[in-house]
Design goal:
The protein has 73 residues and is an alpha+beta fold. It contains one helix and five strands; from the N terminus they run βββαββ. β2 and β3 form a beta hairpin. It is globular and about 30 Å long.
């Protein structure tokens, strides 16, 4: 499944609104720390492993396109 993700600063749980998932992080945007935190939160939200979440676009942006493998394949 491909989802659109909006990243915001803060310490709240992810919120789904329509086709967009808003993820909040306080991790620094250095050495990919914020992206890793976002990926972990997305994995937890969908109940999959972090390895089942793949960033398709938006590595340096607050809007990202992410693929989540919910099949476990």
């Amino acid at each position: 499944m491909i989802i659109q993700v909006k990243v915001r600063r803060g310490n709240r749980k992810p919120e789904k609104s329509g086709t967009t998932l808003t993820v909040y992080t306080e991790a620094e945007r250095v050495n990919n720390q914020a992206n890793l935190d976002v990926m972990k939160q997305i994995a937890s939200f969908f109940g999959v492993a972090v390895s089942d979440v793949r960033l398709l676009s938006g590595k340096t942006r607050t809007r990202k396109t992410v693929e989540v493998n919910t099949q476990g394949d």
